[in-house]
Amino acid sequence: MNNVAVTLQLLALILVGLGCWLWLRAMKARAHRLSLQTTPNFTLGRLAEAADPPETAEVLAQAWAGPDGQLTAPYSQTPCVWFRVEVVHHHWEEEAGDRLELTRVFDLHSHEPFVLRDSGTEALCRPHWITVDDAELVHDRFEADAEPPRDALSPPHLSIEERAERTASTTVAGPAALRPGCTYREWVIRPGTNVFVRAHPKRREDGGLMLIGDEDAPMVVSTHTERELIAEDRTKEFVGFSVLPVALLLLLLALTLG
């Protein structure tokens, strides 16, 4: 077997491995697309008027502050209706001592309810169980030699100058990840953002509409429309279902040549 044949076989095997991963991603995308296409779409007005709300519904509306008022993201001080904070600790591996490990110390999000509005109709969202797609990244900062905070939602007191510097900071850790320290990231949904929501509609005690999720089926909130989400899923399906057969054919050809 010559070196060229061996090289082709190795490349084909690598492509098959990539194709398997893309195939699995395509299957997941297909399941997600079908769930989007089979879940009924409503305006908030129609959903509020429904005598018997469906088990799951999809709506497109604007997100605004809830009964507790507008939120403020703790690190960037960004006005928002929802935020998520992630803190990753870069530290030396305990046994070897010569390799940095990344440990996610905190991954928290706000639970305060916010309001959806559409053509004069409102619905209350309770984001206890929630998955947010493509929220706005407003803070991404690495601090060398920093220790993880005891409470990710209560960063240390900063001067006005330091706060202003951090507010504008979206510098990715990059090479700094090769040093011990912490990376702080923060995502938000700003007031007035158009969001696509897939959730369980319920009636409140006052008769108003409420959207919730549960542990098995979290509320899905996306800054993309349903059409955009379906188009993204179709692209993943096309790539995933195309690459693996081609990779297998290339592998068979490489084995034949060898």
From TrEMBL:
Name of the protein in question: RING-type E3 ubiquitin transferase
Domain E3 Ubiquitin ligase MUL1-like: 103-237
Annotated EC: 2.3.2.27
Alphabetical UniProt keywords: Membrane, Metal-binding, Transferase, Transmembrane, Transmembrane helix, Ubl conjugation pathway, Zinc, Zinc-finger
Ranges that cross the membrane: 6-24, 238-257
Catalytic activity: S-ubiquitinyl-[E2 ubiquitin-conjugating enzyme]-L-cysteine + [acceptor protein]-L-lysine = [E2 ubiquitin-conjugating enzyme]-L-cysteine + N(6)-ubiquitinyl-[acceptor protein]-L-lysine
GO biological process: protein ubiquitination
Intracellular or extracellular location(s): Membrane
